[in-house]
Specification:
The protein is α+β, with helices and mostly antiparallel strands. It has a single domain, classed as 3-Layer(bab) Sandwich (minor pseudopilin epsh fold). The chain is built from two helices and nine strands. A hairpin with a 5-residue loop joins strand 8 and strand 9. It is rod-shaped, with a radius of gyration of 30 Å. About 20% of the residues are buried.
Length: about 160
């Protein structure tokens, strides 16, 4: 018995239409874009590099005060390291938190230390004024050390 007004219609071919396939591809593309954009930068944020440097500088200042010995920080193109004055010479700091560190991937550093090549925290907490500018991909993070030993980070 016919169900439609025009009689029995021929069976429809199984499968998807071109429009249905295109809609599915657009949805998959949007989801893939969302996932890629939400992934973190594997190099980390430049502000994190600046904050880590500032935290280590504060630790060096505190160690200088507690230990009663000058702590120096030397910067170069590859990274930075901490030294402790032992008599008339400098030796690497034995503290695990103050082992030498390399700059993050793609980070370029410019340092300006007043009156010398090394930033020094003395036993009273006073410091050689310095400014360390970290740059990567147009972003910058500036770590400033005042003569009173205060450490500040500004991300730009």
């Amino acid at each position: 018995m016919p169900i439609s007004a025009t009689g029995n219609s021929p069976p429809r071919a199984a499968g998807f239409t071109l429009v249905e396939l295109l809609v599915v591809l657009v949805v998959i593309g949007l989801m893939a874009t969302t996932v890629v954009l939400s992934l973190p930068d594997p190099r980390g944020k430049l502000a994190d590099d600046g904050a880590a440097l500032a935290a280590r500088l504060v630790a060096a200042r505190d160690l200088a005060i507690i230990g009663g010995q000058d702590i120096g920080v030397r910067f170069d193109a590859a990274g930075y390291g901490f030294e402790q004055r032992r008599g008339e010479s400098w030796a690497p700091v034995a503290e695990r938190a103050l082992v030498p560190r390399r700059w993050g991937t793609g980070v370029a550093a410019a340092t300006a230390v007043e009156g010398g090549a090394a930033l020094v925290f003395d036993a009273t907490g006073l410091a050689t004024p310095a400014e360390i500018i970290l740059r990567r991909d147009g972003a910058s993070s500036v770590v400033t050390v005042s003569n009173t030993g205060q450490v500040r980070v500004d991300a730009r």
